[in-house]
Amino acid sequence: MNKMPPAVLGLLTANAVVFVVGLLLPDVGDRIIMAGALWFPSNEYFGVWQMVSYMFLHGGMGHIFFNMLALVSFGKILESQWGAARFLVFYFLCGVGAALIQTGINWYEFQGLHDRLVAEGMTPSVISELLSSERYLPTKPASLEMLKIYASPMLGASGAIYGVLVAFGLLYPNAKLSLMFVPVPVAAKYFIPVILLLDLFSGVTGFSLIGGNIAHYAHLGGAAIGFLLMLLWRKRSRVATFGRD
After folding, report:
1. Where are the domains of the chain?
2. Whole-number Å distance between alpha carbons of 81 and 69
3. Can you say whether residue 211 is alpha, beta or left, with left for phi > 0 and alpha for psi between -120 and 50 degrees?
4. Could you please report the per-residue DSSP string of the chain?
5. Which of 107, 159, 239, 243 has a CB 3.0–4.6 Å from the CB of 218, allowing a cystine?
6. What is the pLDDT of residues 12-25, one digit of tens each?
7. Do 155 and 59 form a contact (C-beta atoms < 8 A)?
8. Quick one: angle between helices 6-24 and 61-70, nearest 10?
9. Tell me, which fold does domain 6-244 have in CATH?
10. In whole angstroms, what is the distance from residue 8 CA to residue 18 CA?
11. Is 117 left (phi over 0), alpha (psi -120 to 50) or beta?
12. pTM of the model
């Protein structure tokens, strides 16, 4: 169990290499972000591949450290139980699912803001011009909110990591986990729902205990996909076992 399994090691290495390249070569790092982060679909920088590539990009030392710590802590246990292929399928499905759900939420909010600006007298062409030039009107708060969605790409492995965390909690519900600011270890079956509720609260209210610019719905999306995959795999396992009997 102490040996790092190959899939987790590969993901850890890939994330670390991309992050270090960005630190040592800022110009290259900027180009990687432009090409690999997940942009809003109507943004000129958007590409379908970003549904996967965004998982290998991080916005700072703290961001990558905690994601990779969780990957190693929980991912190696899952990979040791499932094998590398199944773990990678699970990891990437959770990450892509998180991207799709966050993009869907963004699109819904974006359209609502667009309709509000049109109702306030702005034409769609003026709105598009503002977005393409990354400007907003101080007298139109909705234009700033639209710009944040349009021009702020998503990056990080957190969506996939939340799926891994949920899978770990379902397999090991009584395992004791700790938060940095909570000195008493808490069982995974309590710890993980609390974390998800905090993300839901932050996503709905906009108030976050851990800072801004966090894709809370991507976290929840990755967790939801992980939960559904675990239900599906458990059902298939029961069917297979029943068939052998």
Report:
1. 6-244
2. 19
3. left
4. --SPPHHHHHHHHHHHHHHHHHHH-HHHHHHHHHHHSB--TTSTT--TTHHHHGGG--SSHHHHHHHHHHIIIIIHHHHHHH-HHHHHHHHHHHHHHHHHHHHHHHHHHHHHHHHHHHHTT--HHHHHHHHHTT---TT-HHHHHHHHHHH--B--SHHHHHHHHHHHHHH-TT-EEEETTEEEEEEHHHHHHHHHHHHHHHHHH---TT-SS--HHHHHHHHHHHHHHHHHHHHHHHHHHHHH-
5. 159
6. 999 999 999 999 99
7. yes
8. 180
9. Rhomboid-like fold (1.20.1540)
10. 16
11. alpha
12. 0.90
d(Cα 112, Cα 120) in Å, to the nearest integer? 12
What tens digit of pLDDT does each residue of 166-199 get?
A: 999 999 999 888 765 556 788 888 888 888 888 8
The amino acid at 55: M
Residue entry with tokens 């990891």: 91
pLDDT tens, position by position, 36-49: 999 999 999 999 99
AA letter at 209: L
Q: Is-contact 81 6, C-beta < 8 A?
A: no
